[in-house]
Specification:
Blueprint lengths: L4 E4 H11 L4 E7 L4 H13 L4 E4 L1 H7 L8 E5 L7 H5 L6 E6 L4 H14 L3 E5 L7 H7 L3 H4 L2 E4 L2 H10 L3 E5 L5 E2 L9 E6 L7 H6 L2 E4 L12 H15 L5
Parallel strand pairs: 2-3, 5-6, 5-10, 6-7, 8-10, 8-11, 9-11
Antiparallel strand pairs: 1-4, 2-4
């Protein structure tokens, strides 16, 4: 039997309705939740013919752990994913990012939040990824994982080979023979791989990359940044260079 997928809180649920990337079966709101707090969500649900039911606090607490739901949850279906071609279709200068090797769903969500806020055109993930932990990643990403166009692949090399064939430069972070991100030209069509801080990026991918990037530090320090921090720093610098920051 397929595990029930639950989104928590109005931000995650509203993002899922807006994105239209998964079926939303029912939205549950606790009985004593004021209309002013739920008006927008109810209006969006009505426009999409999504059932909204008022239930007890006990009903909601039995469905989720913790108290971060704010009295609103939704039972939803699996996230619909795109293919790689869809991510660059009709994009003149695409910036696509793959996050690989993040083991914690909260960090995955934090990273995607940064990528979406920076204006990244598309996200690539492995077929087995934190999208299965929809409630956690949607909450930690403030709905960004629902909104950002996303495709899945078996391996990072598969994605690199595809995007390279479409004229994108392949980039990734590295410690050796790398260019400072503030000196590198990040304005061309690009596929960027950001690896998790534990596993990093494989030698085979490093050899495939057109450019290796490094984030300069303000002092001598040997530890790696988290993937979510790296995602934010690089993506915002790329968008700054592209003049796409609003």
């Amino acid at each position: 039997m397929e595990e029930e997928i639950i989104l928590e809180g109005h931000i995650s649920i509203e993002a899922a309705i807006k994105a239209n990337n998964r079926e939303i079966f029912t939205i549950y709101i606790k009985k004593n939740k004021g209309y002013r707090e739920t008006a927008k969500l109810q209006k969006m649900a009505k426009a999409k013919n999504i059932p909204v039911k008022r239930v007890s606090t006990e009903f909601i607490n039995a469905k989720v752990q913790g108290q971060t739901h704010g009295g609103m949850i939704a039972i939803v279906g699996q996230r619909k994913l795109l293919n790689l071609e869809d991510l660059i279709k009709d994009k003149k200068n695409p910036f696509i990012v793959m996050i690989d090797g993040i083991e914690d769903p909260f960090n995955f969500g934090f990273a995607v939040r940064s990528l979406y806020a920076a204006g990244v055109d598309g996200l690539v993930v492995r077929n087995r990824n934190w999208m299965s932990a929809a409630g956690v990643v949607a909450k930690s990403s403030a709905g960004a994982t629902e909104l950002i166009p996303t495709a899945s692949v078996e391996t990072a090399l598969e994605a690199a080979e595809f995007f390279k064939s479409k004229g994108l430069k392949v980039a990734c972070t590295a410690n050796k023979n790398a260019v400072d991100i503030y000196e590198a030209d990040l304005t061309y069509p690009m596929f960027l791989l950001i690896g998790g801080e534990k596993r990093g990026i494989t030698r085979s991918f490093l050899n495939k990359a057109d450019i290796l990037l490094r984030i300069p530090y303000g002092r001598e320090y040997t530890a790696s940044l988290t993937a979510s921090s790296s995602s934010a720093i690089i993506s915002f610098e790329a968008m700054r260079q592209r003049g796409r920051i609003v």
